[in-house]
User: Fold these one by one.
Assistant:
Number 1:
Amino acid sequence: MNSTTPIIAPSLLASDFSNMGDSIRKIQEAKADWVHFDIMDGNFVPPITFGHKMVKDLRPLSKQFYDVHLMVNQPEKHIDDFIDAGADNITIHYESTTHVHRLITSIKKSGKNAGITLVPSTPASQLKELLPFVDLVLVMSVNPGYGGQVLIENTLEKVSYFKEIREKMGYNYKIEIDGGINKNTFDAARKAGVDVFVMGSAFFDEKNPDDLVKWCKNR
Ligand code: DX5
Ligand code: ZN
């Protein structure tokens, strides 16, 4: 398995929206590492979740790494708002805009981390030209838009692909996985080469999320 300790990133998508402050505290008490914000515009994906104000209002509550996943069309229109709101990483979908390289570069110029992600039907090779510039590659292991789905097995091959390229070319992006990650799928994802594990329902449906985080960190 990987040498580094797994990074656990609970997704607020699966939390109680009527009490987001509590959700942040839950993530802190469980000693998870990142907070994953699933931003959905009702366009790129059918549901609408929340916008940059959620990041801004929750920023003072935690020092954890705020990991923003933009499932929105024309992300270029929203980047500055999320930078100002206090995001630490902003991940955009390859399929959501034409000038991806330009957008990744402008996120980096702001001093924030820049991530790229792809839906399950987009081949991993499509990201080749972007890999030298990104800090994070997010492999969607479900079709974006909904929590609580089942992991799509062959997306793990993309994880191995990005791991091999990183080693061969000396890139230093982290590999993150998002969708259907729980105690049954964690080991396969880790073996494929995942560094950062997004968990929505597995974390927030769990009675003792701190035990889950401990379990993951000891795998
Ligand atoms: C899909 C979302 C979900 C969520 C994780 O657009 O990105 O993948 O974060 O949901 P679970 O962990 O419940 O599959
Ligand atoms: Zn996500």
Number 2:
Amino acid sequence: MTVFEHPDFDQHETVAFHTNQQSGLKAIIAVHDTTLGPSLGGCRMFPYANEEQALTDVLRLSQGMTYKSALANIPLGGGKSVIIGNPQQDKTRELLLAMGEFIESQNGRYVGAEDSGTSVADIAIMAEKTKHLSGIHSDEEHGGDPSPSTAYGVFKGIEVAVDYRLGSDLKGVRVAIQGVGNVGYHLVKHLHQAGAEIVVADINQANLNRVVDEFGVTAVALEKILTADVDVLAPCAMGAAINKNTISNIKAGIIAGAANNQLDEEKTGWSLTELDILYAPDYVINAGGIIDCYYQTINQATSKLVNGHIDIIGENLKTIFQRSETSGRATSDVANEMALAVLKAATNEPNTESIDSVRGVI
Ligand code: NAD
């Protein structure tokens, strides 16, 4: 396994590996870029088949966090951590405390939060060993779990994409959601209220039943969700849902969902443009959670500030769609270019005032 030569290395500032024999912890922290501020990103626990898979995941996710914060206009850098293990079987208090110590050893250059496989309660245990965490202030208006804010941002993004492509609001618009966990559940709620027609699929029967019972949405077979005859496809499960095997059968004209790393590789973004599918780049539309975490870290997580800031998602998407249409380039390429421009401008003229205000808190 190589690190510097890894195809997703992309000039990461730090990639730290850690094991702790007593607890069985095996984890990686990747800090991609701290130009805009300390890196913030979730701590994912997943039963990776091997270390190579875990490394690829953490590198791709932490780079995405850099771009996400840059375009969301928040003074944070990009980082991510992964614990190699099955959250259902291997998660113990000792393991979470050891992860807290590992995060502490990064001296604030990495700030953790919950992610797939970790919960607010898990982060609270890590907090016994480090203060470099977000998503635990459950006493605030927007506290703890950031997924409701992620879902709200995705919902606002879907509104913009539907208006751009179909010139309509969401009433009667057909949406397929793959994965109705933390984010997917709240997304169903918003879409249901807006009058959309919703179909869902999930490998977790309890999560599926919850949205079927509560909102009367239609459940379809797992293998039918990506190819459902709908206007909008919202991937809200794991990464790489849009790949060379699935892309040619997608009927939706819009792809707009919460999952990180939805495209298996860069050129899939170009294929979507060729197929005239309007793709809302994942790290642009799912930035609601990082925006929420940012306001939690500066102790200002009110609905007014968080939801007001989330409006930037729609504005970014409009710009990306317009630039893509004018230039014929993939929306994913346009988004990357915009994020890199923010980083370049910050490198030339660092915004030290706002960075220090975050550093003072976390
Ligand atoms: P979650 O684990 O709560 O929910 C994911 C759901 O997808 C689960 O119900 C799971 O059973 C289901 N699932 C997994 N594989 C599936 C498959 N092959 N087919 C159908 N369903 C499947 O996670 P979440 O917090 O809701 O996050 C969802 C996605 O959004 C993840 O990719 C995550 O990285 C991304 N994301 C989450 C946030 C956040 O605030 N939670 C922020 C940004 C991005």
Number 3:
Amino acid sequence: MNKVQLLPKSLPKAIRWEDNKLYLLDQTRLPAEVVFEQQKDEKQVWQSIRQLKVRGAPAIGIAAAYGLCVALEPFKDADISDYKSKSLAFADYLGDARPTAVNLRWAMDRLKEMVVQTDLADTSQLHQQLIQEAEKIHAEDIVLCLGMARNGLPLIKPGMGILTHCNAGSLATSELGTATAPMYLAHQNGIPFKVYADETRPLLQGARLTSWELQQAGIDVTLITDNMAAHLMSQGLVDMVITGTDRVAANGDVANKIGTLGVAILAKHFSIPFYVACPSSTIDLNSATGEDIPIEEREAGEVTTFAGVSTAPEGIQVRNPAFDVTPNNLVSGLITEKGLITAPYREKLADMFG
Ligand code: MRU
């Protein structure tokens, strides 16, 4: 399979690493403007992750891995023990930019482990090794997405309506996305299907990002607001749901963008299969159940404004959890790079990813 053919040339990559420089596509400006920002230091990378300039579980892990290398660049000729302590501190700092997607911590822990385990006494060699590891994390993600594309493909039958929530697409990963990976492959294989993209309040990842990237790929995509999903399901327009995830607990509970739980409950009500695409980098066997997954709470302004215009009374109390947890009994299957996993999840996840 030629992965390059699966995505339109017009679709920009979320992350570019060129000549040891990190460029992130500012996704907060999409689809109106395509702007790349060079990342100069750890503070800028932290802000880019926190502000969702780069977002989506795999993408923030990759961005942080390169970001750590950017942060360490000024110290690449420093004393090795200084370099090591800086790298551990920067990795913890970047790893705290957002709490829910496990990929961020996973990527930072992977680089930290390398620093802790190394026998190298030469700082610049260690620095090169960290860059190579960040490149490896990036390259591996491309392969993980391809694996999910292959394993999710058999689920897509001609004429299906598929609903997705948030953006688990190319913009959230290295290349094919997670939830979108089987869609890109099915489209290339000439299978006709329709995608319904939930708008995804409050930050509109579905409207701004998913519908944008699928439209560019020539996939039949229809944008709906979040509160329209039940109606479409009741009309028999949705045959399957595929979402991405930010963290899968050891028992198969799944954290994803706020609103996913509602979609899963609706799918159960209408007997529609609900699948979650997840690469191994998003599986966290250290979280026993969904209750162990930290849920990010974001600023009130994201709820009280729309496109910069105030839409709520001043001083109103607001809750803004960015994610929710869908219990494993609502999940029809996990589309992983190693295959489609169905319940019971705990044993299978432990066997395959332990
Ligand atoms: O807040 P975001 O935009 O980072 O949330 C992203 C999601 O919830 C995605 O569905 C998830 O990260 C999977 S991305 C392949």
